[in-house]
Amino acid sequence: MRRILSEPLLHFLLLGMALFVLYQAVSPGGGSERAIVVNDATIAMLSQRYAAIWLRTPTPEELQVLVDNYIREEILYREGVAMGLDRNDPVIQRRVVQKLDVLSEESSSLTPPGEAELASYLRKNAGRYVRPAVFDYHQVMFDPSRHGASLEADFNAALAELNAGADPAAMGDASLLPAKAEAVPLDRVELEFGQEFAAAIQALPVGSWQGPVRSGFGVHIVRIDRKIEAQATSLTEVRAAVERDWEYERRETAREAFYQDALRNYDIRIEAGIPRAAPESVNAGPTAAEQAGQ
To answer: Does 107 score more than 60 pLDDT?
Structure first.
């Protein structure tokens, strides 16, 4: 026995076993990272996920399946990470970034804003919450494709007749656009006719036919019958919107602060050349497709 214990080969094997045990204890896959703990919080999480999908709590048998699947996924995930399968995978990277964004958003104070803070936010961003101008109007549209070269003459003749008292229903071209509208806010006008039309009618006087007012549909003769100017709003009227926007800005600020703080811990080296965008030309020539069609 003494002779066996004095064998160098035995010493080598014992040393190898000791190193193996030590490696398992300190390696990334060893120690506590080899432990998968299923506690009350885990059971609650699994049950909540199940209930969110099936609208009921799982039975004991179903819960056991959930636990088995949880353990399986944890083991396979950890083994995959140990093998480096999470590297250079844009789907995994995006998911991790999303989760970290949520954590960084919650890193700032979650105290709801007070009255003074909301009032200050409203003052700084008053333009967002202005009640838009409201219009009563009539409009007559001319489709340029239908009138061709006579568009201007037809338009001017109709404008003169309308201001002389002609019936607007007998003028212009038929379309699905409303010929008459009452109490329509400016943002609705913009939605129906486009930004150019909505911007133009704000400058029109009340009570007379005016034009041309252009839209993406054609040219219009417009009479503003009533106009209520845009009005500022109080915090009471727009509290829900202000609270929502304040919370969104808080989260954005917290997320950016988290990123900037983390960025200071990295040495960023861009070793590849980044091509510069070609400057836009005001008088650009025809494209390759246009040249091919010529």
So the answer is: yes
